[in-house]
Amino acid sequence: IANEDDNMITITDVEKGNLIDEVPVGVEPEGMGISPDGSVLVNTSETTNMAHFIDTKTYEVFDNVLVDTRPRVAIFTRDGAQVWVSSEIGGTISVIDAKSRQVIKKIGFEISGIRSEAIQPVGIRLTSDGKIAFVALGPANRVAVIDAKTFEVKKYLLVGQRVWQLALSPDESKLFTTNGVSNDVSVIDVKKLRVVKSISVGRFPWGIVVK
User: Fold this and answer.
1) Both 12 and 96 in a single domain?
2) Same structural domain for residues 82 and 130?
3) 62 and 147 inside one domain
4) What is the pTM of this model?
């Protein structure tokens, strides 16, 4: 559990409801990403601008990786080889080699007619085959489609206003986006890479999961 005001990660026993340990991290911990084998947790600290690598057996931070300003989301690739970290104010995605903990690529974004400061990546989703990454670009009102092998931005999809988070359907045929200012969810056909529907929801939608 990321505790933003206390600058620490809390580890609990879910079944017993007991506190197991507390792990000090950087200022304003935010995103949490777990490796496929469950051995490594990556936490992002928004003010320290770091991705903290934590051993889930010893509960110790064994590495800190500097990324761009205000990191939000951390997600492992399905094979556990890479960690993708979004930096909201920095406007980039840092791709980190999970073994060496080195940043192997920084992905930036340029959209015609959109100011650079309005491009604020937050949510990330990767397809299970490791071929495509989708990134929510906040006030830019776009979802970036990235070739996850070459790290090349292939396309931008126009969605609702202030897109925050993303979720794939179980069969990965659809991608859903939460649009915090327009109060709706955009539905994207993953194969056609096209927005096919907009669903009105409550005010300021942020997170989303698909059953």
Assistant:
1) yes
2) no
3) no
4) 0.96
The tens digit of pLDDT for each residue in 159-175 reads 999 999 999 999 999 99
The last residue of one of the domains, among 107, 123, 142, is: 107
The rounded distance, in Å, linking the Cα atoms of 42 and 32 is 6
- On whether both 169 and 117 belong to a single domain, the answer is yes
Same domain, 134 and 87: no
Token pair of 58 as six digits? 């010893």
Indicate the helix (H) or strand (E) that contains 52.
strand 50-55
d(CA 195, CA 70): 28
Which pLDDT value is given to residue 105?
98
Q: Looking at residue 22, which CATH number applies to its domain?
A: 2.130.10.10
Rounded mean pLDDT of the chain? Answer: 97
Banded model confidence at residue 50, pLDDT cuts 50, 70, 90 = very high
> Do the beta carbons of residue 65 and residue 51 sit within 8 Å?
yes
User: For residue range 123-181, what is the model confidence (pLDDT) as tens digits?
Assistant: 999 999 999 999 999 999 999 999 999 999 999 999 999 999 999 999 999 999 999 99
Q: Which domain holds residue 157?
A: 109-210
CB-count burial class (<10 Å; 0-12, 13-18, 19+) for 55 = middle
Q: What is the DSSP string of 136-196?
A: E-BTT-EEEEEETTTTEEEEEEE-SSSEEEEEE-TTSSEEEEEETTTTEEEEEETTTTEEE
The neighbouring-strand residues paired with 136 are: 143
